[in-house]
């Protein structure tokens, strides 16, 4: 079945098709003219590259916050541009179908807004699938089997842990402290501890430059000296970055572990044998998997493709409408 699988995330938008796999993976940013706030000039990396250097008369917009729509008109313009960019030759026809991921904790109003945006942006038929379910499918897990699976999703705007089994949700916890807050925490740390003021993109690069494979290395950040106002470079050991982010990550983990209180013993047995699946950009942070293991008391495995597995799962669900139907009724 043709169509689009869309992960419309706070930080990144990823689109896949059954025929071509991932066809778009771009930051969820849009540029508009101040006088025409609902017409996209640019989206994705081109728009994000102007963070901190946007010309007068042009505004940068992030249509999604905490994984849900914050402005309907801007979101329509953004999704329309995404559809056009993902299918430049129109081989889906004028109105393709789509399965779009949504946070499990989204309200009915937020879900209706997403459906409305999809239809008005040019999609013919829109199905919604919870992000943890889509991520599980994208990692080869069958969420319809009579076996419990526990998924931790740390994205840009929300962190969620969801236990799924046999087409339903057993337990769920979420918090709106996630990747954006981690970036902000690092931004404040650098100013308070090293008296250097850095841009949002610099803080983001430093945060994401700390995967498990870089132990012992350092990250160079550039910014303004808070005392002299002059340009300055600072070399940070990755261990220091991990420690700077630890209070925020600990807050996320503390919220998510309460999900275990609702799990029946048999479900715990399932998770112990297969492990907790971690997805989303936040799952790539150095030391996070160990922190989750210590908090959950369960083995944690990070998805092979944590940034794209949700879109891959949404795309796979185009051919499995029973999954979309089962989890849209939760």
Question: What does this entry look like structurally?
Answer:
- Helix 5 (179-194) packs across helix 6.
- The chain folds into 3 domains: 4-134 and 309-328, ATPase, nucleotide binding domain (Nucleotidyltransferase, domain 5); 141-177 and 247-302, ATPase, nucleotide binding domain (Nucleotidyltransferase, domain 5, 2-Layer Sandwich), CATH 3.30.420; 180-242, Alpha-Beta Complex (Actin, Chain A, domain 4).
- The chain has helices at 45-48, 72-86, 108-120, 131-138, 179-194, 200-208, 238-257, 265-274, 288-296, 309-316, 321-328, and strands at residues 4-8, 12-17, 21-27, 30-33, 36-43, 58-61, 64-65, 68-69, 98-102, 126-130, 149-154, 159-165, 168-175, 196-197, 218-225, 231-237, 276-279, 300-302.
- By secondary structure, it is α+β, with helices and mostly antiparallel strands.
- A 5-stranded mixed β-sheet has the order 3-2-1-9-10, with helices on both faces. A 5-stranded mixed β-sheet has the order 13-12-11-17-18, sandwiched between helices.
- The two termini are 25 Å apart.
Short description:
The chain has eleven helices and 18 strands.
Q: Any chance you could write out the topology, listing elements then pairs?
A:
Blueprint: E1 4-8, E2 12-17, E3 21-27, E4 30-33, E5 36-43, H1 45-48, E6 58-61, E7 64-65, E8 68-69, H2 72-86, E9 98-102, H3 108-120, E10 126-130, H4 131-138, E11 149-154, E12 159-165, E13 168-175, H5 179-194, E14 196-197, H6 200-208, E15 218-225, E16 231-237, H7 238-257, H8 265-274, E17 276-279, H9 288-296, E18 300-302, H10 309-316, H11 321-328
Parallel strand pairs: 1-9, 9-10, 11-17, 17-18
Antiparallel strand pairs: 1-2, 2-3, 4-5, 4-6, 7-8, 11-12, 12-13, 14-15, 15-16
């Amino acid at each position: 079945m043709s169509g689009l699988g869309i992960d419309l995330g706070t930080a990144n938008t990823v689109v896949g098709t059954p025929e071509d796999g991932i066809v778009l993976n771009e930051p969820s940013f849009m540029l508009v003219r101040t006088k025409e706030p609902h017409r996209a000039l640019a989206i994705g990396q081109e728009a994000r590259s102007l963070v901190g250097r946007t010309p007068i008369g042009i505004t940068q917009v992030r249509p999604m916050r905490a994984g849900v729509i914050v402005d309907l008109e801007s979101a329509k313009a953004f999704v329309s541009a995404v559809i056009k960019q993902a299918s430049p030759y129109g081989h889906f026809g004028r109105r393709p179908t789509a399965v779009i991921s949504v946070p499990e904790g989204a309200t009915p109003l937020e879900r209706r807004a997403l459906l409305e945006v999809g239809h008005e942006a040019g999609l013919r038929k829109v199905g919604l699938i919870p992000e943890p379910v889509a991520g599980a499918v994208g990692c080869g897990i069958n969420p319809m089997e009579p076996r419990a699976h526990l998924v931790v999703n740390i994205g840009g705007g929300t962190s969620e842990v969801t236990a799924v089994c046999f087409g339903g949700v057993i337990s769920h916890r979420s918090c709106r402290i996630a990747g954006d807050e981690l970036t902000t925490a690092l931004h404040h740390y650098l100013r308070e501890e090293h008296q250097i003021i850095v841009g949002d993109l610099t803080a983001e690069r430093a945060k994401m430059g700390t995967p498990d494979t870089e132990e012992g290395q350092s990250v160079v950040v550039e910014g303004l000296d808070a005392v002299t106002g002059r340009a300055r470079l600072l070399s940070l050991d990755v261990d220091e970055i991990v420690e700077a982010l630890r209070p925020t990550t600990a807050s996320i983990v503390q919220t998510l572990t309460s999900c275990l209180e609702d799990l029946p013993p048999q479900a715990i047995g399932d998770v112990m044998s297969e492990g907790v699946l971690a997805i989303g950009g936040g799952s790539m942070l150095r030391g996070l998997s160990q922190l989750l293991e210590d908090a959950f008391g369960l083995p944690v495995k990070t998805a092979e493709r944590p940034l794209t597995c949700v879109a891959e799962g949404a795309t796979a669900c185009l051919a499995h409408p029973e999954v979309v139907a089962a989890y849209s009724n939760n």
